[in-house]
Amino acid sequence: PFDGGAATALSPDLAPSDPTDRRTAPSLSCIIPSFNEAASLVDLLPRLRTTLDACRADGAIQAWEILVIDDGSSDGSGELLRRWSRQPGLRALRLSRNFGKEAALSAGLGAAQGEVVLMMDADLQHDPALIPSFLTAWRRGADMVYAVRESRDDEGPLKRWGSRGFYSLLNRGARFEVPADAGDFRLMDRRVVDTLLALPERNRFMKGLYAWVGFTTYALPYTPAPRAHGRSKFRPLRLAQLALDGLTAFTNWPLRAVSACGILLALPALLYGGYLTAMYLLYGHNVSGWTTIVVGLMLFSGLQLVSLGILGEYIGRIFEEVKGRPLFVVREQLGQGLPERRA
Ligand code: UDP
Ligand code: MG
């Protein structure tokens, strides 16, 4: 429905939900979480700057800043960023160690000054050429525009299957849907950013939080490019951890499933117990059954441990929240971005 794009709207009704006049060109912050991506940043930053300058020349934005969040890199990113941030519009926030992508994104959102904020990966999988389409969707009234991968053909069957399973578990019975195949390549209006920043939780499963805040959203199909340098930081174990973070932060049906499971198992046990007692009282039969006992014992102690584990996952998150530690620690801030934010 948009100029020149074969975009499919998830929400066809794109009337702006705020009174802001979106005909005035906004200032744009690009935030880029980066962990050992020096090789990619060397390619990405000039390309991004060219794209942003072109957007400004077109009148789509009135100013821009690029903000790289160095998530504890050890590959010389620090030197590179120190050099780059002498140029106007380029900023860097260096965290004191590796805090993880979700924390780096939170740091970036907090430091961004633009009226619209775009986030993208540093590894060149997110093509800057899509930025004008993001801005068009925003101007038409979308508060949040996110890129959705058109296919997962580039991924192995395990990852594809795992991600499908994860989203169906995550969205089970939820009031809002976390769209599958949508990542952290997205543009947000200032109001969405401020809402996200106001959320108090420490477990920042961003994909869930984006969906939780609501507002008018728009999906932009895209095909991620292959990673330019190095390999993905999200190995299978790390992905599984992230999935657990997401499930514990956005669902509580696993806890109910444990109760349901308990009831389902206890009921037949009661009936069977009643039957055996009756047999004994009426006929004096003493049922022998060593095997039954052992199998029953293993089954039920196994189930109990699983239930404890599920409980433990949730309690662990409570512990994280209660400690109330900051999400990240900033080591140094480099460069000058946008002037003071417009009111
Ligand atoms: N990233 C980060 N901190 C981490 C891991 C990753 O800031 O602890 C950044 C990384 O540098 C990249 C983005 O998050 O810019 C996405 O990571 P990656 O490309 O490894 O993930 P994938 O594309 O495979 O999901
Ligand atoms: Mg990547």
TrEMBL record:
The keyword Nucleotidyltransferase does not apply. The keyword Repressor does not apply. The chain crosses the membrane at residues 257-283, 289-311. InterPro entries: Glyco_trans_2-like, Glycosyltransferase_2, Nucleotide-diphossugar_trans. Keywords: Glycosyltransferase, Membrane, Transferase, Transmembrane, Transmembrane helix. It is found in: Membrane. One of its GO terms (molecular function) is glycosyltransferase activity. It comes from the Bacteria. Residues 29-196 form the Glycosyltransferase 2-like domain. Residues 1-25 are annotated as: Disordered. Pfam families: Glycos_transf_2. One of its GO terms (cellular component) is plasma membrane. This is Glycosyltransferase. It comes from Roseateles aquatilis.
